[in-house]
């Protein structure tokens, strides 16, 4: 008898490749959306090695479609002459209603679509988690830091008492 594989409910988002930790600091994330990516073979192989950066990336509309711009997926060294361009525009795959929502938010004043994380789902397909964000001002960033420091102090106080 063959053993059946069980999917664990706690696994969440498969194999994470890159996380944009700075996004929550620089932006107020109001909503998130999962999107697929159109990738070439060497890009997928490079992602599987865990080498990617989405720190400076953002999503933008071009001719009625959305593209991930400025995401760095380095060249796959073993591919030789069939390699890809590291910072090319990559098409995002979303449903038509989600695309209309993204276009509407982008055209509004102050909204940016920021990649939060890049990962492989349970089926091994590359996905990107996008956040609909509004930029923070310096005052808001200081307030966020102050709250984070206070929570850290609270946990230290509780740990030392107990």
Write the layout of secondary structure elements.
Blueprint: E1 15-19, H1 23-26, E2 27-37, H2 41-48, E3 58-62, E4 65-69, E5 90-93, H3 96-107, E6 111-120, E7 126-135, H4 138-161
Antiparallel strand pairs: 1-6, 2-5, 2-7, 3-4, 4-5, 6-7
Keywords: Cytoplasm, RNA-binding
Subcellular location: Cytoplasm
GO cellular component, one term: cytosol
Characterise this structure:
The structure is a single chain. This protein is globular. The model is unreliable at 3-12 (pLDDT under 50). The chain has helices at residues 23-26, 41-48, 96-107, 138-161; strands spanning 15-19, 27-37, 58-62, 65-69, 90-93, 111-120, 126-135. The chain has 4 helices and 7 strands; from the N terminus they run βαβαβββαββα.
Rg of Cα set: 19 Å
> What oligomeric assembly is this protein in?
single chain
Low-pLDDT residue intervals, each spanning 5 or more residues: 3-12
CATH topology value: Small Protein B, Chain: A
Q: How many helix segments?
A: 4
Q: Count up the domains.
A: 1
Given helix and strand content, the structural type is: alpha+beta
CATH architecture: Beta Barrel
Rough outline: globular
Strand order of the largest sheet: 1-6-7-2-5-4-3
- Please give the CATH class: Mainly Beta
Mean pLDDT: 83
First and last CA, distance: 51 Å
SSE string, helix = H, strand = E? EHEHEEEHEEH
The number of distinct β-strands equals 7
């Amino acid at each position: 008898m063959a053993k059946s594989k069980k999917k664990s409910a706690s696994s969440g988002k498969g194999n994470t490749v890159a996380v944009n930790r700075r996004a929550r600091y620089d932006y107020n994330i109001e909503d998130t959306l999962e999107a697929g990516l159109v990738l070439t073979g060497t890009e997928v192989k490079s992602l599987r090695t865990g080498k990617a950066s989405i720190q400076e990336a953002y999503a933008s509309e071009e001719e009625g479609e959305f593209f991930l711009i400025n995401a760095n997926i380095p060249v796959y060294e073993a591919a030789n002459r069939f390699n890809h361009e590291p910072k090319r525009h990559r098409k995002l795959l979303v449903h038509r209603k989600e695309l209309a929502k993204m276009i509407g938010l982008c055209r509004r004043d102050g909204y940016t679509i920021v990649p939060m994380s890049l990962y492989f789902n349970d089926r091994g397909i590359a996905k990107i988690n996008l956040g609909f964000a509004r930029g923070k001002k310096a005052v808001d960033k200081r307030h966020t830091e102050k709250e984070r420091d206070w929570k850290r102090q609270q946990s230290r106080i509780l740990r030392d008492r107990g």
